[in-house]
Design brief:
The protein has 380 residues and is mostly helical. The protein folds into two domains: 103 residues, Erythroid Transcription Factor GATA-1, Chain A; 255 residues, Retinoid X Receptor (Orthogonal Bundle), CATH 1.10.565. The protein has 14 helices and four strands. The strands form two sheets. A two-stranded antiparallel ribbon has the order 1-2. The chain has a two-stranded antiparallel ribbon with strand order 3-4. Strand 3 and strand 4 form a beta hairpin. Helix 7 packs across helix 9. The chain is elongated and about 80 Å long. It comes from Caenorhabditis tropicalis.
Length: 380
Amino acid sequence: MSPNIAHNAILLNTSISETGCNICGDRVNNTRYGAPACLGCTVFFRRTIVKGMQYKCLKTQKCVIHFSYRSACRYCRFQKCLEVGLRAGNIQRRDVLGPRKGLQREKSGSPMELEMQDEQHGLFLVSLTNFQRSQFSEHLQFFAENHVDVAFHKDQMNTVKYRRRARAHDVDVMLTLCLKQANDWGNQFKPFRRLCGSSKKSILAEYSLAFLLIDQGFKTSKEADRGVWLLQNGSFMHSDYFFGLSHATIDMENVKVKTQLHHNFVTELLHCVAEPFKQLEIDEAECAALKTILLLKPSCSERAVYSGQEGVLAGIYTQCLDELMNNSKRKFPDRGEERFGEILLLISSIRCGVQTLYNQTRVSDLFVNFDDSVKNILLV
């Protein structure tokens, strides 16, 4: 992320009420460490002192701290704590043992509020990964509820022995599912929830397809044979148009055009998404990070769609990248930074896949019957 993003965002609103937290301007909770402070800054200060944490500013050590994006720079936030009068000597033994009940963070009304809070630091991708797993668990049931035939069979050893070719109905339900789950994913973040309907629609027109490609690319990289692209229900598309197709159903009219378009489509998805996912051994947390980055940084025509929320957005984006970097270093201690860069490069590949998928919806005989919600968002 450009180091100027958060700095530019904070210039939008730097006024802090004199009656607010002396660090970030949020609602004051106490003065126990020497100055009026909110609950978030109180916990942040105590945790920094108790754990002896060291921070680094990515800019000029002059970041303005506002409650909407106070976690964007922890170095400057801590310096502000010291400047306004918070003192390490005021931390008592009972504070070291843990916060009292009166200092417990207020519970959010949302079942999964993913805002920038220090209490959640280090758990951002964990929470998203758990949510992603719950979405994965819905896939087969969603297809069954929409009357899609079982797409694969397993033997007694739980090994897949048979998959069937994807049909038009599989693809129809696939698009409905991805649109629903992409919207649900977006609603985990306050900046997306605050958007008007037309702005959400603008983002989802691209993002839902990227979301779909990440899910299917991850599944394909883990389960599929070479040349096969898997849908969420386990049905497949093969680069060979005739693979898995009964000869009785083949209409030779215009077959050359169909086969070439189909081959190009599947080959491109495999090349752009599945093969890099397999080569890099992309895990669930990295999938969750990719989904989040693509949501926060849409390439749709309305580039200012999150206008007015830049600070909050920058904070969420920064934490996502920080935890993605930490995840890369845990997996590959000797080349964590390099892997981090390789994952970010997948963003452009996924967007190429989105364009390929979008083009295919216009020409393929698999993309023919669509739910009204899909038509309204994807096919306008």
